[in-house]
Amino acid sequence: MSIDLATHYGGLTLRTPIVVGACPLSTDDHMRTRLQAAGAGAIVLPSVFEEQVIDWTQKMGRPITYREKALLARSERLKIRSACSDANSYLALLKRASSQLDIPVIASMNGYAANGWLDYAGELQEADAAAIELNVHHPPVDEHSGSGEIEESIVAAIEEIDQAISIPLFVKIERVGVSLPHLARRVCSGASGFVLYGRGPDTDICLDNLKLKSTWSLTSPGSAIQLVDPIMRVHSHCPAMSIAASGGIASSDDVIKVLLAGADVAMVTSELYRSGPEVIGKLIDGLIEFLKRHQFNSINDLQLNRPIEFADEESRVHYVAALSAKLNVVRSNAVGD
């Protein structure tokens, strides 16, 4: 039985639902080739940070705000490390990766606000990004009066950047302080998808100098279960919004569960560091075995059998209509290819 693993993620049609999440591994040319050969449907490059974009904006002769000057000064003091030394180097990496691979390469921007990102978002599109992943953080609490104001700032950022590009925009946001299902409805016309992730960095205190330190560690295998509930809530409330599950994807069971919950793709990162690119093939093999066991011929068959609860029959009708619209896009894109 032939299994069709193609999936629709926002405006992209991917050959498999396994996406390499943003991480420094993808800065290496040889590693990207191995990730594609292993079966990845797309690759997200590591982030270019807001501070780097502000510096790029300033060097282009454009004015920057007082807040941006303060952020730039802060980054100089902290010596924030990133995969690329500056915004121009990031554009070169993106251009090289896009020309090297046959699968979509997604650029990633990381920061607090939309100011200064608009021109650079256009540059990312010009450098052949298939899409942009916007990793937007909440500003400090004292800059907002409540969760509603936080949501307004996120909505404004999405609207501004979406107007500056014609490629898909995926939004990766913190789950704390906002109502994800409600936000999904509000930004559905501007954002092509949500990236729902399980956790943030660990915050520690250095006892030698009494300063704060944020560190990332590999996500523990099995922790993807934490994603199931938020994915189901967003998907059932706004089925038109594509979803990527990110955080703790380490086995084919993890992939299957997040897809059944409502995700269109599963992003793998930590497991790549533990097991190498070949783990992607193992995730795909396990997914295929599951589809065969349940007599599903495609990812679309799996999606139609998701265990979603509905408040009434009208909700189910709207849900099926949204899935059908997604399926029609996948089919039209396949014909166009």
UniProtKB/TrEMBL annotation:
UniProt pathway annotation: Pyrimidine metabolism; UMP biosynthesis via de novo pathway
Cellular component terms per the entry's GO annotation: cytoplasm
Protein name: Dihydroorotate dehydrogenase 2
Gene Ontology biological-process entries: 'de novo' pyrimidine nucleobase biosynthetic process; 'de novo' UMP biosynthetic process
Lineage of source species: Bacteria, Pseudomonadati, Planctomycetota, Planctomycetia, Pirellulales
Cofactors, names only: FMN
PANTHER family: DIHYDROOROTATE DEHYDROGENASE (QUINONE), MITOCHONDRIAL-RELATED, SLL0744 PROTEIN
Keywords: Flavoprotein, FMN, Pyrimidine biosynthesis
Gene3D superfamilies for the chain: Aldolase class I
Keyword Flavoprotein: yes
Keyword Flavoprotein: yes
GO molecular function: dihydroorotate dehydrogenase activity
